[in-house]
């Protein structure tokens, strides 16, 4: 899953009580929320957050996601979520690594794929719109 990163964002999250189960480990579904937080940080880095997407005439639904749980994140621990943009020409593919800050252990690996949908025609775009290429030009 390790691809060449075009742009990378990192965010720290302290695991809260409301995210864990009775065994004090993060419930598996909450990892999606952690990925989203890092993805939003990444999108903001190149000035194309969800409001910018909509303003440009496109929505970008997640059409594919894979999560590999390696170890559990635990209550009151701090985790670092790294989001790396690895594809942009026909879709946005973002790879993630979640690590325990204290031990540097890899807890989770994941990726998401988003595609552009023209808001007026509701048609999927097979190439990323020019606006994305323009916003990423400084990083490519």
Automatic annotation (TrEMBL):
Q: Molecular function terms in GO for this entry? A: fatty acyl-CoA hydrolase activity
Q: Which InterPro entries match?
A: 4-hydroxybenzoyl-CoA_TE, HotDog_dom_sf, YbgC/YbaW
Question: Which CDD domains does this one have?
Answer: 4HBT
Which positions, given as ranges, span the membrane? none
SUPFAM superfamilies per UniProt: Thioesterase/thiol ester dehydrase-isomerase
Where are the coiled-coil regions?
none
Tell me the keywords, alphabetical order. Hydrolase
Q: Which Pfam families match?
A: 4HBT_2
Task: Describe the family membership recorded for this protein in Swiss-Prot or TrEMBL.
Answer: Belongs to the 4-hydroxybenzoyl-CoA thioesterase family.
**Protein name, entry field:** 4-hydroxybenzoyl-CoA thioesterase
Give the source species: Catenovulum agarivorans DS-2
């Amino acid at each position: 899953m390790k691809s060449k990163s075009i742009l990378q964002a990192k965010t720290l999250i302290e695991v809260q009580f409301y995210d864990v189960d009775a065994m004090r480990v993060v419930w598996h579904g909450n990892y999606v929320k952690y990925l989203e937080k890092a993805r939003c940080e990444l999108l903001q880095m190149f000035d194309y957050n969800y409001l910018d997407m909509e303003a440009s005439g496109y929505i970008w639904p997640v059409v594919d996601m894979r999560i590999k749980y390696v170890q559990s994140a635990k209550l009151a621990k701090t985790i670092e979520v790294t989001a790396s943009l690895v594809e942009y020409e026909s879709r946005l593919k973002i790879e993630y690594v979640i690590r325990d800050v204290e031990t540097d252990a890899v807890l989770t690996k994941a990726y998401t794929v988003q595609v552009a949908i023209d808001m007026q025609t509701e048609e999927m775009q097979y190439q990323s719109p020019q606006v994305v290429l323009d916003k990423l030009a400084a990083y490519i």
